[in-house]
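#struct-pred
JK: can someone run the complex with pyridoxal-5'-phosphate? inputs below
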Amino acid sequence: MKPHGGALEPTPKSSDPALLATDIVNRLTYRIGKDATVATQDDWLTAVILVVRDRVVTKWMESTRDTYRREGKRVYYLSLEFLIGRLMRDAMTNLELVDELQQALDDLGVDLDVIRQLEPDAALGNGGLGRLAACFMESMASVDIPAYGYGIRYQNGMFRQEISDGWQVELPETWLEHGNPWEFGRRESAYDIGFGGSIETGEGDACTWTPAERFVAEAFDTPIVGWQAKRVNTLRLWRAEPVDPILLGKFNAGDHIGALRESNKAEALSRVLYPADETEAGQELRLRQEYFFSSASLQDILRRHLSQFGRITSLPDKAAIQLNDTHPAVSVAELMRLLIDVHHLDFDLAWDITKRTFAYTNHTLLPEALESWPIPLFERLLPRHMQLIYAINARVLQEARSVGTFEPEQISAMSLIDENGSRRVRMGNLAFVGAHSINGVSGLHTDLMKQTVFRDLHQLYPLRINNKTNGVTPRRWLMQVNPKLYNLAREVAGDGIMTDLDRLTALNDVAEDAQVQQRVAAIKAENKAALSNLIQDRMGLSIDPAMMFDIQIKRIHEYKRQLLNIVETVALYDEIRSHPERPWVPRVKLFAGKAAASYHNAKLIIKLANDVAKVVNADPATRDVLKVAFLPNYNVSLAEVMVPAADLSEQISTAGMEASGTGNMKFGLNGALTIGTLDGANVEMREHLGADNIVIFGMTASEVAQKRADGYVPEEVIAASPELAQALRAIESGIFSPDDPSRYHDLIGGIRMSDWFMLAADFDAYAAAQREVDDIWRDRSRWNAISIRNTARMGYFSSDRTIRQYGREIWSVLP
Ligand SMILES: *Cc1c(COP(=O)(O)O)cnc(C)c1O
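RT: done, structure tokens with the ligand placed:
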């Protein structure tokens, strides 16, 4: 890029509201072609985004020039998911233009809050893993690390969920329908991507691969603004295009449909996000997507490196590539191919460069979520990569054997090829051996990784595994979603909290201050009223904001145990009906979350939540003290309303199964009390909060493992707990499903038979913990103090802290 002076800056730097208003009207007139008197709310939204975007672009170019000049190392974050949500408020906040734009729009008679909600959510992710990638992008810009995110520009992101008669219905999501003013198409940045075909041996280690199919990857860039616009980084997403959009021969022969075949095939590659979370998709198209975006990204990285530094061997000094889970793990083989076949390095040197460039983040220990591909499929799509994987494997196994102490089972556990049953490529092992760093996402998860999935590889390479506990960006998850709490925190802790979230500890000193407590309670009440209005608008259900808002929102999965929460709700309902005279704490149980379309039990759990809600909400005997609601279409924007309104945060996964969680951190930061198990980052939350400021219950991860090993008999536990037995019987009996009394036989039968997720085993402890929560609620001053201490002590869980640790300990880009 040619440096140029300020002359080309598109807009004056001034943040004067009058100038901003003029800017907005100018965009409306000249870019959208509308007069202010006829402009729709959508037109105003686009006009405002264009004004904000121009200011972002100015900073973006400065950042790009600065990175080039410094000749420093760049970070590349490869992720099949980026769950970014809406971008406008993010950009306005980080440019510190919110008040000024609000004023400008007021003067134009436009309501910022109304147009803000018209922006579609960029839902290019399933859940936690994709949201983490989005928080990381924002934090890398905020702590001034030159970084690129690489992913796929899905035409259809995460499906939209409707609830029809209590059942989940999946509808296609069409975020690009009205265009995307944030992105810039880069026709000049396009790469060839091949599949299949044949290989010829060449000189030395090099081969020539002639793919049978070819596509083009075309780049679309979105600027990601850091806090106070310190730096603007790039999110580069790839769209698949045909090499020949129209087969002219066919077209001229009159076969107009056949002529478009290539176009349709290409389109499929970047068409849709796989809407499965924590389960392996296992389809050919998924492997094609993984290779498509890995190859495009690596070609782009090598092109940038060579054009600036000229020498391929300095790659590890100038580029750090982070693999977000195993989805981009084929990158290890692709970089080897590019270095050996295209850049003519020998195998040894290529392998050394590869290992020094890559790092890998593991996100799950669930066996069903560990990616592996059948060898015949892999070989057919990526024949050259298959060869390279065999060669890498031979080298690793040779190294392992030469240690002399490993048993044959250990060697076969380290192999990149799973030889049990039909042979498969293990993507986790490929990522492990091809990386110099393998990190888990919480202390507990990292320890378990060393003991389970990577036990043997960890023995062979004991220095590679390390921990980087997840975090969330405080700009979005405190400042934007809860501006009043942020302002109060700023009054107490000073202006620096957004650059140093640990400064929130200043709030500890005012936790017992009656006046501060009242202000915090009033802010919570306002947030609850806002959520209550949303529920009224969307569901026609009225919720008294004075009730305790008890919230569980996340993907629906058996290990996350929404079912435990629902069963406890049924038990509570039963108790209230039996003892209406007791001083029950009024509560509303709120749920939201999507189930993978093929996940039968998860969809049944959604239906059960809705069935229970229907009965409970209609019962005049319990109406004032218990309500249940399942809010449709959980996404980032809904989380932004629900998180600040929570009194109680449910983080109740079976210990050992949630890698970290990030929802838990968002709630704590916003002053909710957590009821949770010692799982994922809950363990570290307790350490930072102190045991008095979080309600922990249930078995530990090692107790769960022990119980499974000992031969757990759930019926014994159920027989010993009258409340649990009664609740399970009620659900089985059809009280909540009179139209289909046997609807939940199998779901509850699963608990009786095996109860893999230990619902029965943890039930009594969970119910007791809930009554402890009631006791705290009755002492409102104690509750408010705990709420303030939660906000005060969540500084550690800023994604800025996480990213600084990656920067220093994995990427070597920070002092
Ligand atoms: C934070 C977040 C998640 C992750 O939630 P967990 O409770 O950690 O599973 C998932 N989806 C959305 C939309 C989020 O904002």
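RT: quick notes.
The longest strand covers residues 213-225.
Residues 41-70 form the longest helix (30 residues).
JK: thanks, will look after standup
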